[in-house]
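User: Show me a protein chain along with its predicted structure.
Assistant: Here is one chain, sequence first, then structure tokens.
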Amino acid sequence: MLTTEGPSSTIYKAKREPWITPTMVLVGLIPILTFGLGTWQVQRLKWKVALIDDLEEKLQREPIPLPPHVNLKAVPEFTFRKVVLKGHWDVSRMMLLGPRVWDGNNGYHVIVPFVRSDGSTILVDRGFVAKDLAQNVRQILASECDEVEILGMLRTAQARNKFTPENHPEKGEWYWADVDAMAAHAGGQDAGVQPVFVEEVFEGHAGEASSRLARGEPIGRSPAVDVRNSHVSYIVTWYSLSAFTTIMFLRLVLRRRQAFARIPR
């Protein structure tokens, strides 16, 4: 007897993809992250504005004399305070810090130990000198051998970033203001040199600055707060990125819903 078997019937079911994919999770997290970074920059902006206001207020105060021996721990509290110094220059230990740029000119800042009449020796940044005249600045400053009184601004040591080369004191190469190393190079404690950094203030007009530049005389800094504040641009960047990625995420969700609506149930 013959037995006829019909073909076996097999039911195939389409594989259903999950509604939420890793891509959606990633795109959904970006707006949250960038919004948080934008909000953090708002807080940073408030802090920076308060800091600049505080420094501006310090800068407007009357100049003060430095004590004979400066308390190094107290220096950060007096950053940007104007100080009056009396003494003479030790040009023999002058250092060139740079390269630096001033009004489109390449050059260096001239760092000279200042031997105070009533106290320790400190470091004074006398300002910018053009590169072509930098080698003659020692002779020019050597003529200032008498006691002088200068107006300066108290500053703290600069932080070195990863793009700035290391200093080489033995070669006379100073790329960043390492105040401790500069003080040691100028004689250190044995010579009564303290790691205190003052920037000489120049209050002359533009014509006088150009004249000093041409003669190879250092041009001090203007009495102004130069703290960088780019937080507004960061806020705009992060919030804009948050808004853009939010739109991307919503469009992705909409397309996903439309795709699922076309799948037969």
